[in-house]
């Protein structure tokens, strides 16, 4: 099934739901992996909104991606508490180890690297999140071990 057909099907499923846009955008991203540009006019038409309104919501929320991303998201906390405990060094190491910068995806499509500005784990800095799991007191050695586990399997031990 083409992405346009998937999007149209999802729009039809959500269009009568009050406040449909956010659940619809999440559903599209879950189905396709991101919200492609060709989704905007389909959503706008289906929800009786302008393209600008749809684009505004997509661009406002940082969780919505408008291009393909890696199968796994690695986020390194850049808050002051984490910086004080070594996240800048961790960040430099992560970029070098993965061969990518923030906002980029590894060549094999496995990992996207993103900054995050607080994971609510300040007492255990520096912190990072891989997909939905937060890890505390991450140094270069622990980062390498977590990424190695990620490469070897779908699950990572906390």
Report on the architecture of this protein.
- This protein folds into two domains: 3-60, no CATH class; 72-152, Glutaredoxin, CATH 3.40.30.10.
- It is built from seven helices and five strands; from the N terminus they run ααααβααββββα.
- The chain has helices spanning 3-14, 21-32, 39-47, 51-60, 80-84, 87-98, 140-152, and strands at residues 72-77, 104-105, 111-116, 128-130, 133-135.
- Strands 2-3-1-4-5 form a five-stranded mixed beta sheet, covered by helices on one side.
- A hairpin with a 2-residue loop joins β4 (128-130) and β5 (133-135).
- It is elongated, with a radius of gyration of 18 Å.
Protein topology:
Blueprint lengths: L2 H12 L6 H12 L6 H9 L3 H10 L11 E6 L2 H5 L2 H12 L5 E2 L5 E6 L11 E3 L2 E3 L4 H13 L6
Parallel strand pairs: 1-3
Antiparallel strand pairs: 1-4, 2-3, 4-5
Nutshell version of this structure?
With 158 residues, the chain is of the alpha+beta class.
Q: Key terms for this structure?
A:
158 residues, alpha+beta, Glutaredoxin, 2 domains, 5-stranded mixed sheet, 7 helices, 5 strands, elongated
């Amino acid at each position: 099934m083409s992405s346009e057909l998937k999007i149209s099907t999802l729009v039809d499923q959500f269009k009568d739901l009050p406040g449909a846009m956010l659940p619809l955008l999440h559903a599209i991203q879950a189905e396709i992996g991101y919200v492609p540009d060709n989704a905007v006019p389909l959503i706008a038409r289906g929800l009786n909104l302008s393209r600008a309104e749809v684009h505004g919501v997509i661009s406002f929320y940082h969780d919505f991606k408008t291009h393909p991303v890696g199968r796994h998201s690695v986020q390194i906390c850049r808050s002051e508490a984490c910086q004080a405990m070594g996240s800048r060094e961790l960040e430099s190491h992560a970029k070098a180890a993965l061969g990518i910068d923030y906002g980029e995806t590894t060549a094999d499509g496995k990992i996207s690297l993103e900054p995050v500005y607080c994971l609510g784990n300040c007492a255990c800095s520096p912190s990072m999140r891989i997909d939905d799991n937060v890890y505390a007191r991450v140094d270069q050695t622990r980062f390498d071990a977590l990424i190695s586990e990620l490469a070897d399997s779908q699950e990572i031990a906390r």
